């Protein structure tokens, strides 16, 4: 199964959302599935950087630091989310948050007719 994980946070970020998204991608790859992670670009890495997990490709979306919390990157609205779903020929979209990327992932999945599931692991 080709699964696209759309997440607002992914390693090298150190937090619960990043950890859960990383573990989900890793477990899918270990079980023979083809995961793709869509996440904000890091301060040191740009869009399109390869994945941090063996067997998992990562598409990085241009991002900016969150004012007051520069270690948190916020993805800019981008057509790259829909392009990633299309290029990966996704069977399922896993949304790991409701923010910019999550909203773009949900809209793209609906427009492309791809089933989506959503989880949320953070208390704001």
Write the layout of secondary structure elements.
Blueprint: E1 2-6, H1 16-30, E2 34-40, E3 57-61, E4 63-66, E5 69-75, H2 80-88, E6 92-95, H3 100-112, E7 116-118
Parallel strand pairs: 1-2, 1-6, 2-3, 6-7
Antiparallel strand pairs: 4-5
Write structural notes for this entry.
The chain has 124 residues and is of the alpha/beta class. It has 3 helices and 7 strands, in the order E-H-E-E-E-E-H-E-H-E. It has a single domain (2-118), classed as Glycogen Phosphorylase B (Rossmann fold), CATH 3.40.50.2000. The strands form 2 sheets. The protein has a 5-stranded parallel sheet with strand order 3-2-1-6-7, with helices on both faces. Strand 1 (2-6), helix 1 and strand 2 form a beta-alpha-beta unit.
Brief overview:
With 124 residues, this protein is α/β, with parallel strands linked by helices. The chain has 3 helices and 7 strands, in the order βαββββαβαβ.
| SSE sequence, one letter per element | EHEEEEHEHE
Helix/strand/pairing class, anyone?
alpha/beta
- Percentage of residues in DSSP E strands: 25-35%
Question: How many β-strand runs?
Answer: 7
The averaged pLDDT comes out at: 90
Instruction: Please tell me what the overall shape is.
Output: globular
Largest sheet: 5 strands, parallel
Stated plainly, the CATH topology is called Rossmann fold
Enumerate how many helices there are, as a single number.
3
Q: Which strand order do you get reading across the main beta sheet? A: 3-2-1-6-7
Q: Please state the second-level CATH architecture.
A: 3-Layer(aba) Sandwich
The residue fraction in helices comes out at: 25-40%
The CATH class turns out to be Alpha Beta
N- to C-terminal separation?
32 Å
User: Which ranges are low-confidence, i.e. pLDDT below 50, for 5 or more consecutive residues?
Assistant: 47-51
